[in-house]
Amino acid sequence: MELEEFERDNSQSRLLSSPVPEICRTEDCCLGIDEAGRGPVLGPMVYGICYCPVARKKDLQDSKVADSKTLSEADRERLFEKLNGSSDYIGWALHILSPNVISTSMQQRAKYNLNALSHDTAIGLIQFALDAGVQLTEVFVDTVGPAEKYQEKLKKIFPELDVTVRPKADSLFPVVSAASICAKVARDRVVKDWKFVEDLGELDADYGSGYPNDPKTKEWLSRHLDPVFGYPQFVRFSWSTAQTILDNKATPVAWGDEDDDSAGGKSSTPSVLSFFSAPKDVSQPQSHRFFQERHLQPLLEF
After folding, report:
1. Residue ranges of region Disordered (predicted)?
2. Is 219 annotated as a binding residue?
3. pLDDT, tens digit (0-9, with 9 covering 90-100), for 177-195
4. Residue 247, annotated ligand binder?
5. Which among 85, 174, 196, 224 could disulfide-bond with 61, CB atoms 3.0 to 4.6 Å apart, if both were Cys?
6. Do residues 79 and 71 lie in contact, with contact meaning Cβ atoms separated by under 8 Å?
7. Distance (Å, rounded) from C-alpha 161 to C-alpha 54?
């Protein structure tokens, strides 16, 4: 599992995959889909697929794959290496969704929630397998939202496939269990080796489970809040837990518009633009590190 490209720039999502086994190009195959890291306020969400010939489902089951949430980290790592070592008949692919991409997607002007993002990612991975030459006939998916509606949606997009969407599919179908292991191993590795591009001083990586209801996670969020720029990209700032801390502890700013000042005076609350203006003695304005870290470019000159 080569994660170096994502680790070099974790502000962007990445797709990585194993080679497609030759047998999967000629024999009917089944494919499972699952995710890891949907709920945490910290780190990426990872969607994974795993596929193998329908005729070798029993071999996959005999490898003792199971829902990744029921396995220890050591067992997940061992099983992933076993899956990866069975490249003669098993293939996999992963889509690592950066927390930066998750947050900006959910906060864009047009409504785009986490369920829609999850559905689109799963659809993209199915299409990726088809485009790679996998002879898919069966797809098994751990549901996001109502299972019947999700299944109907996938069948309309892929009418040639036999699609099954179920709650807890990772405990029902070995091929989904295998996908859940791939996704969970990738997320654990990425979170453990996360490269913070922001200057956080003496970084404390003891952030607990990363889930919003974890007191240790909440305390870490409060401690690593920049009063103007908010959180490092490790944080999903669209989550309500992060938003609440921002509302209570961040510097209040207003998007300045003098035309809206009915009193004729200027507000004591600074315009957010004032934080980004260049010093008067600088001939060429320099982009603040906040924008450099997030690969943001100005749309107009101030």
Report:
1. 252-271
2. no
3. 999 999 999 999 998 888 8
4. no
5. 174
6. yes
7. 13
